[in-house]
Amino acid sequence: MVYIPQKQIENLKKLITPGKVVVIYGARRVGKTTLINKYLESEGHAGVLFVNGDDIVVRQYLESQSISKLQDFVGNHSLLVIDEAQRIEKIGLNLKIIVDHIPDINVIATGSSSFDLAKDVGEPLTGRKFVLTLFPLAQMEISQIENRHETEANLESRLIYGSYPEVVTMRDNSRREEYLREIISSYLFKDILELEGIRYASKLVRLLQLLAFQIGKVVSVSELGRQLGMSKNTVDR
User: Which residues form the AAA+ ATPase domain (predicted)?
Assistant: First the structure.
């Protein structure tokens, strides 16, 4: 896939600070891991420990809340990068222990489920974190790989399908539709259903359809609940 340079890489460089955690929020597949990899390439960082929260061994260490275990895990590395950080129980508290007890450590934490990550790192890392929010590609970024004529030609498609990095580089609309459906079914609904404890994905799909029909109008939560067969409080959530 063609790599489109991300402007946020410059902000990431500025935020990396010893004793602080840079938390990267963003929807799935917007390029969070790619951003980190390109940052590491550009900076030529030595002493990087890059781990994934899906790894059960990594979780055993980073869930320990033990100063000695966390120090042993980090070792002499100067930069700790944790991908899929939301998989790690009480990750916020464990990161607090790391930055408080390991001098000059730099930490980056990111994850596919920004909902879970935001919930876990909020209070424990107060005053110890910087937040970087990553969105799909901006036009100023896309303009690095296309000229004005191409931008005008792609405008309608971009308004319909958006600017996820992979979507931008695809040339076939059917592939774009398939890709976006996969993101919705596998990621978006899963995150929302897990976060709010909603049991029926079909209700969420129907809610999105009803909201789409009411763009530009006053929305009645009670009426939405009536049409969905759900309580007003559930619709609010």
Answer: 18-141
